[in-house]
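Quick one, T. Sequence first:
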Amino acid sequence: MPAVENVNGQAIVLHVDHKDKRDPKQWKGFKFGVPFEYSMHNFLLRYYLAENGIDPDKDVQIRVVPPPEMVANLRAGNLDGYLSPDPFNQRAVWEKVGFIHMLTKDIWEGHPCCAFACSQKFANANPNTYGALLRAIIDATQYSNNHDNRKEIAEAIAPKNYLNQPVPVIQQVLTGYYADGLGEIQNVPDRIDFDPFPWHSMGVWILTQMKRWGYIEATSIIRHCRAGLPGGRNRQVNGRNGLLRSG
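Structure tokens:
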């Protein structure tokens, strides 16, 4: 995983019928949606539930639901809530079927979200293509990191051939000035942010959560942690952009 496309940019959404259940201890029996079993969303949700005394494997159901289908499933009563990438959290508020219980940045500030990943085989066989893709993502994240550009970006990615979402929904996410579905307007400029290079510590946290919930064996953590930071080609591309780090 040579690059992170954005950090933060997720939220826990609950159905509007649960406005009286803001304490996670009241969520036993709830059905939650996440995009994928091996996703950041799943592990953040599990972490948050466990921190509040809820066993994610016994006290609730966690289902895999494609993010574009989450609002419809919430409306239909198939889900009580979900942890999803934006803009599908804000879309639930827009549709008046859900509210934002919590931004995931308040669980882990600066956590990775969407990412660019490829196999070592692809990078070795196509070094120019790999380098061009990585540099394009770095350029895009740098442009997106400037808040002055975010309304323009919202308009560019709203059409059907991209996110197929109302422009105001995306603007609320990118600017961090948004309705929370509880009757309040929030101003959180770093609701979503853009920082392209992953930290080794991000991988360590993800691996420990995967071990915690039985997705991998302990030996996998040791093996991957020993692997360390990305090597040669990634360092060259990052170095040309003046953005190497090793934390």
